[in-house]
Design brief:
- The chain is about 0% helix and about 35% strand.
- It is mainly β and about 475 residues long.
- A five-stranded antiparallel beta sheet has the order 1-17-18-19-20, with no helix packed on it. It has a four-stranded antiparallel beta sheet with strand order 4-3-2-29, with no helix packed on it. It has a four-stranded antiparallel beta sheet with strand order 5-6-7-8, with no helix packed on it.
- The termini are close together.
- Strand 5 and strand 6 form a beta hairpin.
- The chain is globular, with a radius of gyration of 20 Å.
- The protein has no helices and 29 strands.
Amino acid sequence: MRKRTAGLLTVALLASAVPPLLLAPPAAAAAAKYADDFNGDGYRDLALGDPTATVGGKKEAGAVVVVWGSATGLDTAKRTVVTQNTPNVAGTAETGDSFGADITTVDLDKDGYGDVIATAPAEADGSYHGTFTVLWGSRSGLTRGSSHHNPACKTCGFAKDLAVGDFNGDGRQDVVAVDDEHIWYLRGPFTKSGGRGAATNLDPVDGEDINPELVVSGKVTKDGTADFAVIGYDADTWTNRVWFYRGGAGGPAKPTKKTGLPSSSDVYGISAQIADFDKNGYGDLAVGIPRGGRGGVVHVLRGTSTGPSSTVKTLSQNTAGVPDVSESGDGFGGDVSAWDTNGDGYPDLAVGSSMEMLGGSYFREGAVTVLRGGTSGLTGKNARQYSHATTGVEGEPTEDAWLGTSVLLRDYNRDNRAELVATAPEMGRLHLLRGTASGPTGAGSTLLTAAQLGLGSRPYFGARLAD
C-alpha cells in the first residue's frame, strides 16, 4: 500500500466553495470485490482528497471526492463530494482543517463495501490536535463518517500519516498512525459508531529520538500477515532510516535494528510503496526521494524472509533505459504508485517528478515515469515518460503545471492493465490515461478540472490520490 506524506512541496493553492454533495452514486448490484469499491457494485471507484477546498466559507477545510466506477471504467459524469459538513460525517468543516490531506481505501469492517480513511492533520478535536475519519461505504456510497484522535498525546499532530492491514492475523483490519514523535498501532475491529480495539505505542526503541514521516504497509515476508515500515529521521545518527515491523499472531514485532537509506543531507522519504516487483514472493520496499542526488531517486530495498534487505538498489533518470536525464530540482520520486500496467504479471512503478522541465521550455511542467517490473525487479528497461507533451494527453504544456504531484495506478476497466491517474494541481487538472499491452497511453486520455470534480471554479486544487 503506497504512502506519501509530510515533506511534500508546499504549493500556494486557491480554494473555492464546495457543495457537500454532487450527483448521487449509482446503485449497488453486488457485494464489493475491491477495497476501493465503495458501493459494492463490483467496480473500482476513484477517491481523491482536496485539503485546500473551501467548505461553507471555511478556507482549506478540505473535501473528499469520489468518481464512480462502471463496467467500462470510471464514469467521470458521476461524482460525489464529501466534507465534514456532509450529514452523518463526524466533525464540522473549519478553516485550516485540511480534511483529505491523505486518504487510504480499505474495507475496514469487512462488510463488503470499501471505505475511505481521510486524515485531517490540523483538525482540533476538543483539546486533541489532528484526526482521521473513516468514511464508511454502503450500498448508497459513503454515507457516514466516524473520527479518531491521538490515543494519548493531545499536541503531537496525530494522523501525520497512516497505513492499514491485518497485522496480527486475526482477520480484522488494523491501523498504524504516526504523529510527530510516536508510532501508534490501533487494533481492529473498527465500528461505524467510532469504536476500535486497543491502542499500543510501537516506538522502535525506548528513549530513541525519532521523527516518523510516513508509514507504508504490505506483505513483505511470506507468512501471510501484513507488515509495515516506518520511514523517518533518526536523531541519534542524523540520518533517515527505515524501521520494519513484521506482523504476527502477537501483533507487529518491534524492530531490533534499523535499515539505512543511503546517507545524504538530501535524503528523506516522501513516498513509498510495497510490491513484489520480481514476483519471488517477497514484497519489496520502494522509497521515492525527490531530493536524492538533487534530481531525485527511487531506492528499492528488496524483500526477504526477515524484511527489507539492507542492500539498496537506486534508480534515477540517469539509470540506463529511463527517459530524460537527472537535473537538479526535477523532484523525481515525489510520489510513487505500483500496479501492473501492461498485463505481464509484474507490478510496475509510476514515479512523479512534478518539477520536471521538459525540452528546456516549461519550468516545473512536471512528468510521470513508469518503471517496469520483471525477473530482475524494477529496472530502466522499457521505461516510459508521460507529460502534457505526450500525444493524446489533453491540456497544453505550460509552466508550473506540477504534473505528477500525486500519481496512482489502478485497473478500473478490469482488463488487467492499470490506468495511470496523475494530478497537475497548479493547473487544477486530473489526468486519466488508459492502460494497454505496452503500458499507459495518452491516446483517448481524459482530463478533469477542479470545477468538473465539484470543487468549485478555480484553477488550483490540492488533489491527493488515495493509496
